[in-house]
Structure formats: structure tokens, C-alpha cells
Specification:
Chains A, B: GO terms for molecular function: DNA binding. Two copies of one chain form a homodimer. With 333 residues, chain A is α/β, with parallel strands linked by helices. Chain A has helices at residues 4-11, 15-23, 30-43, 73-89, 104-111, 126-135, 159-172, 190-207, 222-229, 275-290, 318-327; strands at residues 61-65, 93-97, 115-121, 140-143, 153-157, 177-182, 210-215, 235-239, 252-258, 269-273, 298-301, 304-306. At the A-B interface, helix 4, strand 2 and helix 5 of A face helix 3, helix 4, strand 2 and helix 5 of B. The structure holds a DNA duplex (30 and 30 nucleotides).
DNA sequence: GGGCTGTGTCGAAGCGCTTCGATTTGACCG
DNA sequence: CGGTCAAATCGAAGCGCTTCGACACAGCCC
């Protein structure tokens, strides 16, 4: 192993001088600096992990810890893409730590001095993984909310705001009775369904409109069931638009969707929760955290409203929807 | 600053014991371990980054070298996803080396003993990167063909077979005059266009049918132009189906497309070139190469034919196509 | 020339991590 | 009960990094 003392001997200076060259903590003349740098390269000295104040060998990798089991790959792929792009802007490569079963892979990644910080995608194992990272003192940001309040820096999509935004938009248009087909509250997305519903309900109350929510898993034809049971409903909020095709044309529709950067456009007015924004924000938070900042414990990425012609004043939708199907509306940002 | 000695004092053990708890280099009883961990948490001790558990680690990371500029992100994302999944099956994490400008990032990754091998996505810089990897003696597989014949192990989608497969399928159905709207031959995909055309032309000759090819970039309405100039054409091969919407309904259509694992289905009979297969094959090749095998210099991943009702006997398509739009045909694998 | 100041480098003390032989502990056995 | 052994833990020496006061030297002012 090459030490700072070896470099010092080779360069004919004191060990502390090498130290100051590497860290930049004291000014060193250009001549000496060059000589020391040459010796470092020639001997192949690798400063240990703590010794990285100077840009001599900064951490150049960000790790993303994610399961590959039990995830929806296209969604994860979009998130990974945006994270890779954002990491690149910080001149960081991205290590995908995909070990599903054990912690060994993560432990090894955590031991690498190349890795400057960890993004952890929320999952059943996330808590355990965050604990390990905490124990070895690595910066970590959780993409999700399960760790909020435990000293973990979290970032997530603001489903609550999305639910509220839908209601606000429809209420602004004059709808007084709004139905909501929520996401299935099963397993992992249960938090999503709960938070969206909370936003929907609170906004309906605030705006003084009638909000009727229905979990999608409860019935075979939830749309029909909801509209039959509540004939006063003139507008629907749907959680992802796959089921919205069945909605009668005289009902206004707002879809809560992932963003469209991936190319799948929707014919509906949508409240989009951008995985791309989420990834970017997560990277920014991690970079800040690793740099010594103390970011807020929970950051929520707000939704974007994309207006198309799938909703209008109550009872007036029919005329416009057919053009909307092929109109290809424009984004708002 | 909290030190290992503080933790030791707090937990009532020797500093070295704390050290062994943190690193796992010697066995520590569960009782002591818990006590030390509690002290670590309570005092907020942050072990320095160099403190890792194992020294003699086998390589556990595969690197993927790819540009993020000038690429079509969704396509790359699908490829990365399949590579990550395939790598996981070999118990490898995936390092995305996305440095666009300089070689420093790649050089650092190549210097890490964690990284067992490199996949290089073809691009303008790929040659330079492969040369560097060759110089430092690292295993590498090129996804693309630009290095074929230079001692580089290459793997690519078989566009030539895809072009031929389209002709064969249409000829089998009785079409005698087949048009081809090729991909734009600009920049990077020029090789793709050239190879697809070569397959198309060779198959047309072999089958004794009239093949009429047109580069898409040459005209504003290439479909119309082709059909007007060649009224005998009864079937079209299109390179990705975005332009195929304009094709008259009495013309059969086969689309050459990426695979549909990502969820975007096409209404057309398609010859699919699966990025997922490509990624998986690339990983397998790299693992084999790193393990000492000598794989073939060029591996081509064959296309899959997915039959839908967008082509039939000449002149008979109209009746079926409208159902095909909503039928959601089935895969063949 | 003598004092002053600022820069660049040194050297030794100090700190925290790391290692390894020594020591303790407790289980097991005759 | 004493002996044996392995596991668990300790303690001190060692290593490499880190800090800080000291020192050398040049330039500058008087």
C-alpha cells in the first residue's frame, strides 16, 4: 500500500506537504505541487476515503438502491432514466444496486469510496437498507415516505396535492358533484391511494362540492357502479386513465397520471405526477445532503395540470371530446 | 465529533470491539453487538467511509458505458432495464458510466476491482472507449457493430433478418409487389437503415417479388409518394409504425418495431427487434467473456414476428383492420 | 542592516482507526 | 474439581492522516 509518506519521500518533501497538496488546505507553490502530483501518479497513491477535499479524486458515483422484484418495470425505468440524467449533470455515474435478497451487495457498495451517496427506492426492505447506510455513515435519500420522521431525508410525489388539484380544477369549471375512482389500495400502493383520497376529500370539503370516492378493486365495473349509485355526478377523477375509456361522454374526466415524457400521451385532461421531476429532485437532495446541507425531512414534488378537452362545464363535454381524441393537446410547461 | 472510543466508553467495551462490530472482521456476540449498535445510534457515530466489511470481494458490478446525449431515452431506458435485470440474475449490480465528454469516469471505473466487465453502447466515442478498456485489459462487449472484426465482441439486433422476415411474411401471403419505407438514414441510425434495406432487397430478390424502397427523409409524404409512383404495391414494410397511420386500408402493413415489453402495443403485424433480448444476450456474452470463454465476434439477435390483422391476402385487408384496432393481439413467445 | 510581514514548508505531536497477541470467559469433559 | 479448548473481548502498539506551531526565506520599509 502506498502511503502519504511514500509519496513524500519520492517527491522529496514532508508528509504534511503532500497532505496539503492533496487537500488544498494550505497553499503550496506550483513547483512543489507539480512534483508531488507527479509522484502521486507515478507511485499510484490513492488517497483514502476521507481525503477528498480537493477535486483530485472526488466521489464520482451515486448509487440507486432498488428492488427488481415486485415493481412495475416501465415506471422504474423512467425513474432510473431521469436519475441517471440528473446524476450526469452533477458529473456522477449511477450504480444500480439491485440485490433483492440480501444486504451484501449494498454493504459492498457502501464500502466503496467511489460512491458519494445513496438513493433508496421505497420498498419493503427500504428501512433495513437505510439503517445499514446510517450505521456506516453514508448519505442517503429515500424516494418514498416510509422513513419520514425517522431522520431520513424523503422525497415523494405529492399525491395529496394531485387529488386536491383535480377537485379544484373541476370545481373551478362549475362541477358540484365529483366522483373519484381511486387506485387499488393493495399492498404497496396503499399509501398512494390513501394520500390521493385524503387530498380529494379535503379539497371537496374546502370547495363545498360533493365528493364520492370508490376504491377500484371493490367492483368489476366501478365506473358504472359509481355513476348509477350517484346520478348527480358530472365529473370523474380517475387514478390512471386505463379505466377511463368506459366513462360516458357527458361526464368530465380528469386523470391522475405519470408524466408523459415517456411518450404515452393521454386524451384526457390530466394531473401529472412526474417521475422525471421526482428523480431530479431526489438527486439534487442527495447532492445537497452529501455536501453537508440539512434538507427538509420530506420534500413533495407537486403535480402538473395538463389541460385537454376532456372536461368542461357540466353537461357540455360531448361536443369537444371527439376532436380531443386526435387533437394531441399541448403541455403546460 | 464522535469517535470509536466514545462509542466504546458508552457501551462499556474496548475500542477494538466497536471496530469489530462495525466491520464484522471478528465475531462479536449478539449481546455485545446490540449494545454497541445502540450506542452508535444514540451517540450518532458516523464511521468514516473507508470502513468496509470485507476485503477479498469478488467483482460484483458490471459497467454499462453509454452516452446520454444524442440518444432516444425511452429506447435506452428499455435496454438498460433489461440489462439490469439480466445482470441481477448473475448477482451483479450495474454501474451506468454516462460520462459524455471525457474518459476520466471510464478510467476510474476501469480501475475499480469491483467491476468485472464492461458493456459499451455503440456511439461515436465507443471505439475510443473500447481501446482504453483493451489497454487496461478489461473484458468488454460492444452493443452495436462498429467494432466487429477488430477483435471486439459485438452483439446487435439483426436488422437485416428483420427486413427479410417482413418480405418473407408478405410474400407467403401472396403479395408480389412490396414497398418499404425505411428509417431515415441520418447520422447514427444510418447503419440500421442500410442493413434493413439490405435484408429487404436480398429477400425480395430471393422470393422473386418487386421490392420498392424509399428513404423516409426524402419527402414530406413518403407513403403517398411511394404509392402513387408504384400503384402495383399491395403491401408496405414500415420502419416503426408512427407513419403507418396514413397508409390506406387496402394496403397490407408490416411494421419493424422495438419489442412491446414496455407496453406500447401496435395495431400492426410487426417484426419486433427486442431490446430486451439484446440486453440479456449482451450480459450473457460479457459474463462468458469475463469467465474466459471466447464468444463469436458478432452475435445477432433475431427478430420476432407478431401477427395481427394488418396484413392478409392482397386487397382483402379492409374488412379486418377495424377489429384489429381493439383486438389486442397476442405475442408469439 | 534590522525589523516586519507574508509565504511556503517542515516536523513533531495528536488523533482515530486497525491489528494482533494476550487475556478472559464459559462450556464441556474426564 | 481441574484441565482443555474455542469463542469473545481487551489492550497496547502501530499506522496513516491531520493539525499546528515553528522556521526559513524573500521582499519591503525604515
Amino acid at each position: 500500500m502506498v502511503t502519504i509518506a511514500d509519496v513524500a519521500r519520492h517527491a522529496g518533501v514532508a508528509p504534511s506537504t503532500v497532505f496539503y497538496v492533496v487537500t488544498g488546505k494550505r497553499p503550496i507553490s506550483a513547483e512543489t505541487r507539480v512534483r508531488v502530483r507527479d509522484s502521486i501518479v507515478e507511485l499510484g497513491y490513492r488517497p483514502p476515503a476521507g481525503l477528498r477535499s480537493l477535486r483530485l479524486d472526488p466521489p464520482d458515483v451515486m448509487a440507486l438502491v432498488l428492488p427488481l422484484r415486485d415493481v412495475h418495470l416501465p415506471v422504474v425505468a423512467r425513474l432510473v432514466t431521469s436519475i441517471a440524467v440528473a446524476a450526469r449533470e452533477h458529473e456522477l455515474d449511477l450504480l444500480l444496486v439491485t440485490a433483492d435478497r440480501d444486504l451484501a451487495g449494498l454493504r459492498r457498495a457502501a464500502g466503496s469510496d467511489r460512491v458519494g451517496g445513496f438513493l433508496v427506492l421505497d420498498s419493503e426492505d427500504a428501512g433495513e437498507r437505510l439503517r445499514l447506510l446510517g450505521e456506516v455513515g453514508r448519505s442517503a435519500v429515500l424516494i418514498g415516505q416510509s422513513g419520514a420522521g425517522n431522520g431520513v431525508t424523503c422525497v415523494d410525489l405529492d399525491f395529496e396535492a394531485a387529488g386536491a388539484r383535480c377537485v379544484d380544477h373541476l370545481a373551478d369549471l362549475g362541477h358540484r358533484s365529483i366522483g373519484f375512482l381511486n387506485a387499488p389500495a393493495a399492498g404497496h400502493s396503499s399509501g398512494v391511494a390513501r394520500r390521493t383520497l385524503a387530498g380529494f376529500t379535503a379539497a371537496a370539503m374546502r370547495r363545498g362540492v360533493v365528493g364520492t370516492a370508490l376504491g377500484r378493486e371493490s367492483l368489476v365495473h366501478p365506473t358504472t357502479a359509481l355513476l348509477c349509485a350517484h346520478p348527480a355526478v358530472t365529473a370523474l377523477v380517475v387514478h390512471d386513465d386505463s379505466a377511463a375509456e368506459q366513462v360516458p361522454r357527458d361526464i368530465a374526466v380528469v386523470a391522475i397520471r405519470p408524466d408523459e415524457a415517456a411518450g404515452q400521451t393521454s386524451p384526457f385532461t390530466s394531473v401529472q405526477l412526474s417521475e422525471s421531476d421526482l428523480g431530479r429532485r431526489a438527486v439534487d437532495l442527495l447532492v445537497a445532503l452529501a455536501g453537508g446541507a440539512v434538507p427538509p425531512s420530506l420534500t413533495l414534488v407537486p403535480p402538473h395540470l395538463v389541460q385537454r378537452e376532456s372536461c368542461s362545464l357540466p353537461g357540455r363535454r360531448t361536443a369537444v371530446v371527439s376532436t380531443a381524441r386526435f387533437g394531441g393537446g399541448r403541455h403546460d410547461r
